[in-house]
Amino acid sequence: MATFIIGLVLLIVGGMFYGKVCEKVFGPDDRETPAITKADGVDYVVMKPWKNMLINLLNIAGTGPILGAIQGILFGPIAFITIPVGCILAGATHDYFCGMISMRNGGAQIPKLINKYLGKGANKVYSVIIWILMLLTGVVFIYTPGDLIVGDILKLDINGAAIWITYACILGYYVISTIFPIDQIIGRIYPVFGAILIISAVGVFIGILCDGGSSMTNLTAATLFNQHPSGVKFIPVFFITVACGIMSGFHGSQVTLISRTVKHEKEGRKTFYYMMIAEGAIAMIWAAGAMVMFGRGTDISTGATSMVGIISRGFMGGFGGLFAIAGVIVLPITSGDTAFRALRLMIAEQFNIEQKSKIKRVGLSLIIFIPAIAILFYAKSNAAGFSLLWRYFGFTNQLVATFALALIAVYLKSKGQNHLITLIPGMFYSFIVTSYICHANIGFGIEERLGSVFGIGADSYVISYTIGVIVAVLYGWGITKIAVKRREKILATKLE
Predict the structure, then answer these.
(1) What is the pTM of this model?
(2) 10, 323, 341, 419: which could join 412 in a potential S-S bond, CB 3.0 to 4.6 Å?
(3) Distances from the Cα of 311 to the Cα of 24, 67, 70, 151, 415, angstroms
């Protein structure tokens, strides 16, 4: 319990302090925002600060900070320190600068910003990866809430006809929210969703406090490097597993949506930075809830989705448990709808497809939803299909974040600001994603294939870590070089 409380205090106090540091580095002013200069009644719409904050929180907080945190706590109480530190220095920083730089560039989506600050080559690679990520995000956020609704609330067979009816209803909502103006659907229904989310998180938190810490483990020298039950390494697996609770590249696509509805730049710290801190708190709460239940005897091999019901009912009883589960269902639904919306806007922006026309919005949406349905069918009909997609989703989620951190570093350097604030997290995560995909069996499986040649075991990370370090160094060198050139070009232009 002590480690959990220390972690929460660190998250809140550290977040308040570092959020101000990020704001000072960026320097928001009183210029008109895209919500005013490009108002179109569809995507560029001024909304109230509290509504922007709530919508952004619901957009970025999918099932990742819950399911990921439940799995991440198996690494031990170190998660209660790693989550807040990572959230403050990487995740919230990433979200804040992505949202603010987008606002300074007319509400541009990340692919367009990548093109501007990193070049056309990087944009082509990034665009393909982010489009795939958005599509997978939308699909998995149909799958997970659908299974929770049918299995935990309706108590029906998740492989029967009811599941497809539920999927169809969720998909129908996604279609509507993707096509209609943001303030007509999302802006009206999210306050209700937000209330459910907050109440459920508070309920679990109260349950943890009532437990008194009797079922929780504190961080000590003996528990610092506890081995995961399955033997996987803390680095890099933990940072891929708890992705959304620490940092998520997916968030870049979401904060740029809200950058089009913010009236004043100075609202950015609360809207972008603090909402990621709130997501980190959600991850902390569910991680602690899982630790309590595991401490009470719940089998550690229990799946993360099943643990949601166990934690909810364990702390809030029958009715309260259903309400908490509803809060978890809200998270993926309120991320899936804007994932599809963001994908529509990215494709439209890439190919200059005007989006005021209803016919063009519907046509482009159909192009998106047809492959989404096909992927959903594959994932549900293949026993290992969804598991495979989810693992690639987790890896890709962190990979796209390294691109965003790079463009932020270049932007800051070009303005004469401290670019290390995102370059260092970018180097760390380039090491994480590289070492993970090099070692994982869904990637290159280098140690398994070459371990015998070098006299190392398949579970070793020696080769993968080495490659990860090299990539991280090259990442830092390459981004700094691009940033310096852009800075020199800007200075030369001013002198002329």
Answers:
(1) 0.88
(2) 419
(3) 40, 12, 10, 15, 47
Contact 277, 61 (CB under 8 A): no
> Region 195-210: what's the mean pLDDT?
83
Cβ neighbour number for residue 98 with a 10 Å cutoff: 28
pLDDT in tens, 362-374: 788 778 888 888 8
Residue 496 pLDDT:
41
Q: Distance (Å, rounded) from C-alpha 487 to C-alpha 481?
A: 10
Pairwise CA distance, residues 325 & 456, whole Å: 45
CATH code of the domain occupying 2-391: 1.20.1740.10
Q: How many angstroms from the chain centroid is the CA of residue 53?
A: 16
Domain boundaries of the chain, sorted by first residue: 2-391
The CA distance from 92 to 176, in Å, is 30
Please give the DSSP secondary-structure letter assigned to residue 31.
P
Q: What is the residue whose two structure tokens read 């220095």?
A: 89
- How big is the chain by its Cα radius of gyration, in Å? 22
pLDDT digit string (tens) for 340-393? 877 887 788 778 787 677 777 778 877 888 888 888 888 888 766 666 777 788
Tokens read off for 446: 């280098």
Count CB-CB contacts under 10 A for residue 33: 24
Residue 312's pLDDT is 86
